[in-house]
Amino acid sequence: MASVFIRSTALAILMGLSLSVAAFDASSNRAVNLNDKGVALAGYDAVSYFSGRPVLGDKDYSVSFDGGIYYFASKENMAKFKANASQFAPKFGGFCAMGVAKSKKLDSDPMAWRIVDGYLFVLQTKEVQKSWLVDVSSNLKVATSEWATIKNIAPKGL
Fold it and tell me: What is this structure's pTM?
């Protein structure tokens, strides 16, 4: 009986956490996926992905780019981003790359990601990431074409 309670409590906590992660504005027509504080990548350091290990950034090291605020773990990462922001910022504004391929602007999980051809792509979940990885080339081709059409449309309008 106690284990059922513990599992139920853990599930409720996880559901609460996943709802807080999905704090993007479905009525916003911005081309960047932001949390309720205007922060991109849920506060993760965009440059850290390129070292293979994403880490949370610090608001003391922040840069505004394309309408969003990016946090960095260090002054060095912040300087790298400033020098080449379009290289380090996630493609498709940080919306789920698979969602964009399906003409949708979906929130993304900063821990479901991949670097492809020197660019960062984030996905909705690790399960979605598995599907996306089956045919990255085709998915990116379709998503790139779709992004031009949906970029400035609110998610709820798609």
Answer: 0.84
Radius of gyration of the chain (CA): 16
9: Cβ–Cβ under 8 A, 6 or more apart, which residues?
A: none
pLDDT class of 25 with cuts at 50, 70, 90: confident
Adjacent-strand bridge partners of 123: 109
Residue 99 CB contacts under 8 Å (≥ 6 apart), including other chains: 105, 106, 124, 128
Tell me whether strands 119-123 and 68-72 are parallel, antiparallel or unpaired: unpaired
Please say whether the beta carbons of 68 and 40 come within 8 A: yes
pLDDT digits (tens, 9 = 90+) for 77-103: 999 999 999 999 999 999 999 999 999
